[in-house]
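Late entry, evening session. Most of the bench is empty. Finally got around to the prediction I had been postponing all week. Sequence below, unchanged from the version circulated by S.P.
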Amino acid sequence: QEQVVESGGGLVQTGDSLRLSCVFYGRTFIDGHMAWFRQAPGKEREFVAHINWNGSNIYYDNSVKGRFTIFRDNAKNTVYLQMNSLKPEDTAVYYCTGGPPSGGYPYWGQGTQVTVSS
């Protein structure tokens, strides 16, 4: 049964760094892609970063490009989101998601809260 579980959120100050982790379970993720989305209060969920199964295809939303890095360790069934130079506008619930190579993100985690104080 496919499952993703995020961790690593917290309260930090502007300019700080934080690393989110997402452990994934299930055959879909062996060659599937993973991504991070986020949802701020009162806003729609938005895309943050994507990585394919071996890290050869990575892309980011412009708002985090140069500050965030997505990477994965398939031996540990884990995908990470390294967040540097955090800003208050990065405050949101961050969701890990994944899906098969054919596309889509059918599997979602519960989310982890990231709060950046000014």
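Two things to note before I forget:
The two ends are 41 Å apart (CA to CA).
The mean pLDDT is 96.
Will write this up properly tomorrow.
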